[in-house]
Amino acid sequence: MERNLAYVEESVVEDEVLLDARERATELGAAPVPASVGALLSMYAQMLGARSVVEVGTGAGVSGLWLLDGMREDGTLTTIDSEPEHQRAAKEAFRTAEIAPARTRLINGRALDVLPRLADGAYDLVFVDASPMEHPLYVEQGVRLLREGGAFILNNALLGGRVPDQSQRDPATQAVRAATRAIAENPELTSVLIPIGDGLLCASRG
């Protein structure tokens, strides 16, 4: 299984801009999404014809670059992070990638304070890469933001294998399980858990 996952990661090639952003992320301690996750984000954005995307957890811009790669050229990425240093690094990555300034809206703040101010049903895709302890709250807010046919994607859905291990009962694991249940039990959503990176829980709103 590990050999298969390693092969999956090696099959995705990143350009110099992404590699530089990944290096900055590591330096800042802002763990970037693996290349396989980034490629999947780009594919989702492309298949949705995404024009309006929300990202929770800007980091150094790695996932944002992948999302922008798949979005429409007139699309806008709204990306939220509480760390100003992360967003400065992301701005540099977007600038280096020659992303037009109008295509990104970087908001510095706590995502759970920002998300309630965003419009219901106005977004094609919501991607969350943030604290597992708050996953249930992100599900509640994220699904509200989606248009019909939109996609909600939650990173770190396996927590290093702790989530499927029923002997693990720590608060973060319990919170991720609660978020997974909330998605599975929502009649408006169709979901799948994809075992790349540290688990990617994907749901579409019907």
Automatic annotation (TrEMBL):
Keywords: Methyltransferase, S-adenosyl-L-methionine, Transferase. It comes from the Bacteria. The keyword S-adenosyl-L-methionine applies. The keyword Nucleotide-binding does not apply. InterPro entries: Cation-dep_OMT (IPR050362), SAM-dependent_MTases_sf (IPR029063), SAM_O-MeTrfase (IPR002935). SUPFAM superfamilies: S-adenosyl-L-methionine-dependent methyltransferases (SSF53335). This is Putative O-methyltransferase YrrM. It comes from Nocardia ignorata.
